[in-house]
Design brief:
Leucine-rich Repeat Variant, transmembrane, 4 domains, ARM-type_fold, HEAT repeat domain-containing protein, mainly alpha, globular, 4 strands, 18 helices
């Protein structure tokens, strides 16, 4: 009898486990094409909540939604295009990389706000794929002159980091050197081993941009070539080398970024835009509350919005800054934010150097996409949780039966 009951338990557990696995395997694939198409159209709804919920549902559906989302990159509704790109980035299926680059290259770029927003979404999506996107982006950038599409493609390489450095270094030898140098500098330490040898390059413009990209470095291997560059024929290279050496001499060892407050996650761009609009009054006109902390009276050299959804505070490299001072500055900003109805406002502190005058630099320092912080949470799969609960229930019932038999 006990052997039969034991076999019954094993069989019951096998059935429950099989049901759970079947549920996991079929949950997303069972969504109909019509349901996916409906969710994609809701990405263009005028209601932000409906858009966001549709985006979350499509991310949860995953791979079955990829092809319809790729098709939606050409939708007549710009909101559908924009949010389809972002959802593809969040799903992370690599088959979307080439279509996203194609969408970037085929934009007419009449400099409308909608087109720029779509370009930003494509840039964000491509950057989220990481290393698999590097080679396709490099191929797209070959022998290109600057354009909106090219600018977004170069910017997409920055969040990828070290795997993208060789591509950006090669761009220093092209007409895209200004943009490449900026993003190499934002990548920072992973780019230094590539950049230091370029301080002695035969091309004066490459020496110039390599020195610019190394402003803020603490790498001792850069000291000698930067010192030699002080006698360079290129005036801009001399100025940047001088600035880099000055910063190295006075630099604080702590040059990482610090986030205070609560980070927000956005599934569609309208959520982000509404959020940024709520932050604009806080930074408008460099408000008086932050002025006492500005250089030369304090360490702050920049204050504005980052399009990822943060207030950003740039601190001068080499200035005396500690956690206590950052906490003090944050409390002042947070108090102002509360007056505007924003709780736990996210503020990103980063260390920067004073800008170096240049012949032609067109960079948006106040609002840029160079910093993208991510958080992750571990969640238990719902079907799996239900399966475990069922197994526990079966074990309890059989246990009661066994106790009665004895």
């Amino acid at each position: 009898m006990k052997a039969r009951i034991f076999l019954t338990i094993i069989f019951a557990l096998f059935l429950v486990t099989s049901q759970v696995q079947a549920s996991e395997n079929q949950s997303d694939e069972s969504v109909s094409d019509e349901a996916i198409d409906q969710l994609i159209q809701e990405l263009g709804n005028s209601n932000t909540t409906i858009k966001s919920n549709a985006a979350k549902s499509l991310v949860n559906i995953g791979d079955p939604a990829v092809e319809p989302l790729i098709t939606a990159l050409n939708d007549e509704n710009y909101d559908v295009r924009e949010n389809a790109a972002l959802v593809l980035g969040k799903i992370g299926n690599e088959t979307a990389i080439e279509p996203l680059i194609t969408a970037l290259s085929e934009q007419e770029w009449e400099e409308t706000q909608e087109e720029e927003e779509f370009g930003r979404a494509l840039e964000t999506a491509l950057g989220s794929f990481g290393e698999p996107a590097v080679e396709p982006l490099a191929e797209f950038l070959k022998e290109k002159e600057y354009s909106h599409s090219v600018g977004h493609a170069i910017a997409a390489l920055e969040p990828i980091g070290e795997p993208a450095v060789p591509v950006l270094v090669q761009l220093l030898y092209t007409e895209l050197r200004v943009e490449a140098a900026y993003h190499l500098r934002m990548i920072g330490e992973p780019a230094e081993d590539y950049l230091i040898p370029l301080l002695s390059d035969a091309n004066p413009q490459v020496r110039d941009r390599a020195a610019e990209a190394l402003i803020g470095t603490t790498n001792p291997d850069a000291i000698e070539p930067l010192t030699k560059l002080l006698d360079d024929e290129n005036e801009y290279a001399r100025n940047k080398a001088r600035r880099a050496l000055e910063i190295m001499e006075n630099q604080s060892p702590e040059t990482e970024s610090f986030l205070y407050g609560r980070e927000r996650e956005f599934f569609v761009e309208d959520e982000k835009r509404e959020w940024l609009s709520s932050l604009e009054p806080i930074v408008k006109g460099r408000s008086e509350y932050i002025m006492p902390y500005f250089y030369p009276d304090g360490p702050v050299i920049g204050y504005g919005l980052n399009f990822q959804g943060y207030l950003i505070v740039d601190l001068l490299i080499g200035s005396e800054v500690n956690e206590s001072l950052m906490a003090e500055i944050y409390s002042v900003i947070d108090e102002e934010a509360l007056k505007n109805g924003v709780e736990e406002v996210p503020v990103l502190f980063s260390f920067e150097s004073m800008p170096v005058p240049d012949e032609a630099v067109d960079e948006d320092v106040a609002i840029d996409g160079s910093l993208e912080l991510t958080t992750s949470t571990n969640t238990l799969n719902e079907p799996l949780l239900k399966g475990f609960m069922s197994m526990i229930l079966i074990i309890l019932i059989i246990g009661l039966l066994l106790s009665r038999k004895t």
